[in-house]
Amino acid sequence: MFDIWINGAYITYLKGVTDWEEVGNIKQSCGKASFVYYSQDRLEYEDIIQKRKRLETLDSDHADQNIVTGSPILVASGLLGMGKRGETGKTFEVTEGGNLKMLEAAGTPESLKMERENLLNGIYYDTNTPNMSIFDGEGIGSNLPIIGIKIRFLPATLKAMNK
User: Fold this and answer.
1) What is the pLDDT of residues 87-103, one digit of tens each?
2) Which residues are 13's β-sheet partners?
3) Is 66 within the bounds of a domain?
């Protein structure tokens, strides 16, 4: 299938048995370009389906882990009593040798963070999608020149030109 855009018309051809056949001729009186949808045998994002599934699992597991370990836990030994609910400046009564301490995770799980970043970067790379997140250009404000933005979209533009 291919299209011809001429002044005032949009013509579509499809490969027939022996030759190309005209299958559409749409008059364009307003001079505007139409949006065109093409089907294809292979999904555009097929290369990243497994990465996307793993990323969703990782995000879900990470959220579950944060529920369990995200907040400090009060560990008490020899606890006899504690302040009532709603009181500010609660006091705890412990036996001799008793102990109260806060238990916290040592830090963010770096391996999970690294895997998540790798999966996201792989998704952007495999789909030729520019990463335009607000964090990607942090600190540069409006100083990013227009050429920098165009360069970010270059892989996607080249991919579209090859279709």
Assistant:
1) 666 778 888 888 988 88
2) 2, 22
3) no
The secondary element (H helix, E strand) that includes residue 38 is none
pTM of the entire predicted model: 0.44
Q: How many CA atoms lie within 13 A of 72 on its CB side?
A: 8
| Residues lower than pLDDT 50 in the chain | none
Do 90 and 83 contact (CB within 8 A), yes or no?
A: yes
Helix (DSSP H) and strand (DSSP E) numbers for the chain: 4, 5
Q: Quote the domain boundaries for residue 92.
A: 72-104
Q: In whole numbers, what is the pLDDT of the chain averaged over residues?
A: 78
In the Cβ-directed half-sphere of 102, how many Cα atoms lie within 13 Å?
7
Q: How many domains does the chain have?
A: 2
- Predicted confidence at residue 64, as pLDDT, reads 82
What is the DSSP code string of 93-152?
EEEEEEEEEEE--SS--HHHHHHHHHHHHHHHHHTT-----TTTTTT-TT---HHHHHHH
115 in a domain, yes or no?
no
Contact 48, 121 (CB under 8 A): no
Q: Report whether 9 contacts 27 (CB < 8 A).
A: yes
| Number of Cα atoms under 13 Å in the Cβ half of residue 116 | 14
